[in-house]
Amino acid sequence: MDQYMQLFQGTAFSSQSSKEIQILKDYLFAINAEGMIEKVVAPEDAEYHPLLEAYQGKSNFHRLTEGQYLLPGFIDLHVHAPQWAQSGTALDIPLYDWLNTYTFPLESKFADLDFAEKVYDDLVSTLLANGTTTVLYFATVHKEASLLLAELCAKKGQRGLVGKVVMDDPAQNPEYYRDADTNLALVDTEEFILAVRELAKTVKQGIYPVVTPRFIPSCTNEALEGLGKLAAKYDAYVQSHCSESDWAHGYVRDRFDKNDAFALHDFGLLREKSVMAHCNFLDEPDADLFAETGTAIAHCPVSNAYFANSVIPVAHFHAKGIDIGLGTDISGGFSPSLFDNVRQAVISSRMLEDGVDPSLPAHERGVPDSRITIDEAFYLATAGGGESLSLPIGRLQQNYAWDVQIIDTKLPSAKLPIFDENEDLHGIFEKIMYLARPENIREVWVQGMKVHSR
Ligand code: GUN
Ligand code: FE
């Protein structure tokens, strides 16, 4: 019997810190039966060659070929699974109109399990093919269809955190799409938590239930309070939207005379295992509250450009010690790819950057200390997501899950422009981050299991 379940040899990129990547050139990665990285061995280590010799030629030895590189699997902190069916639709209209005209009618169709299965099956496979190994999902108000999404994650090997959406306020939600009443919303949520916990016992990679008030405008005070209690009772993950758009932010100020952060906190919804999407209009006390409660931010740079006309000051929030990861926000963001969101996170941050020269007008447009580098954006999509979820994922390090994407830069059909045989590895990393397409993602592994190849 082999000591390890799998042994990989290749060059990998992982985050050393939020600012810097670590380049692991020609390392060995030994994966144990639980799908965790048990050992990371450098070429100069004494055990490198004996280990290599013991596994070479075996079916559980994987040597990356020239031009292939390992990256941690991406962690998407904000996906509306049903909205995959309308990706790219009507992003030119305001959030409120988009929700009522397109999104709620679409989501109401997920009462039909056959329709739900078609969309969810395709989405989970698409996200895996884009290198996304862990996803924090909003499903719909329907308990059964939400459970079906969790089952599809389980079956396809993706690490899924899934929420049955709560929107119970009859004054705010259309009759054709809302929880029948507040009590049922809470009962359904509790039954959903228990069902997902049962399902989780059957998989290795982890499937988790998430307490999911859609956003404050869609929920009654009773529902928000009940959901806070359920989160505490089950020590469950919590997700919602927080201070996303001028309209949503203003609605909460009118209703509670507070910002979203403090209102959510009053209901017990800001916890160590909470992830709040967008957070475009957090002020300093809001941000301090996030840091104190351990609440993380799902930064959705593509979606924020469309619905919020806004850029969050990632560097500033990082300096306060807030955990931040990336979200596609399908379909407020049109793309299923976190590569696209990594790119947009950098581009957006450059637009918000303070002008270097205080005598130029650009100085007044910016926010100091906003700019992030490609290394930092990569951190958001990987280690930052793992920290936001308090899970050992997103890094190629000992005691982390073997969640990886194998990138091939030399495919004839999708070759990256690398012409110098001795190009420095950070340069190659940058080319991968800016230019890789799904075609370049040759294999995806979650918890030591191959879940996608092309
Ligand atoms: N706020 C409430 N619901 C939604 C949604 O589905 N998408 C986005 N972007 N914002 C929301
Ligand atoms: Fe969203």
Automatic annotation (TrEMBL):
EC number(s) reported in the record: 3.5.4.3
Reaction(s) the record says it catalyses: guanine + H2O + H(+) = xanthine + NH4(+)
Keyword Metal-binding: yes
Family label: Belongs to the metallo-dependent hydrolases superfamily. ATZ/TRZ family.
Protein name: Guanine deaminase
Pfam name, any one: Amidohydro_1
Record's keyword terms, sorted: Hydrolase, Metal-binding, Zinc
Amidohydrolase-related domain segment(s): 69-448
Cofactor: Zn(2+)
Pathway(s): Purine metabolism; guanine degradation; xanthine from guanine: step 1/1
Record flagged with keyword Hydrolase: yes
Function, in words: Catalyzes the hydrolytic deamination of guanine, producing xanthine and ammonia.
GO CC terms, sorted: cytosol
UniProt GO BP: guanine catabolic process
Example of a GO MF term: zinc ion binding
Note describing how the cofactor binds: Binds 1 zinc ion per subunit.
Gene (name only): guaD
